[in-house]
Amino acid sequence: MPSSVSPTSRIPLFWLAFKNLPLWFIKQYSLQTLAKDKYPSLYFHPWEFADPDAYHTMPFYTRCSSGKALLNNLSAYLDWLKSIAGFCTIENFINHQQLR
């Protein structure tokens, strides 16, 4: 299942956006995506939540807002999202779509 993109500017809603865009921007794109597609599909790499100093050879835009900063940002986002949408596994989502 591909990661969602904002309907107007086609910016992917994935780990790199969460690291480099303000949270209000991600929320706005998520609202647009929910209105158009009825769901956001996000993905993150597990290493994104590790200590960013361990990845000093990677470009800054991939290292910024890593570790606890990213976890705090994602937590705030999920708290906001659950106030306006429900959650399910990809398997349940796909099965539900096939019933339509």
Structural notes for this entry:
This protein is mainly α. It is 51% helix and 0% strand. It is built from 5 helices and no strands. The protein has helices spanning 15-20, 23-37, 60-63, 67-82, 90-99.
TL;DR?
The protein has about 100 residues and is an all-alpha fold.
Secondary structure blueprint with pairings:
Elements: H1 15-20, H2 23-37, H3 60-63, H4 67-82, H5 90-99
Principal-axis shape equals: globular
- Total beta strands: 0
Q: Could you tell me the mean pLDDT?
A: 83
Report how far the terminal alpha carbons are from each other. 18 Å
Largest sheet: none
Strand content: under 5%
Number of helices: 5
The H-and-E topology, N to C, reads as HHHHH
Oligomer: single chain
Helical residue percent?
40-55%
Low-pLDDT segments: none
Structural class: mainly alpha
Query: What is the radius of gyration computed over CA atoms, rounded to a whole number of angstroms?
Result: 15 Å
Features of the shown structure:
100 residues; mainly alpha; 0% strand
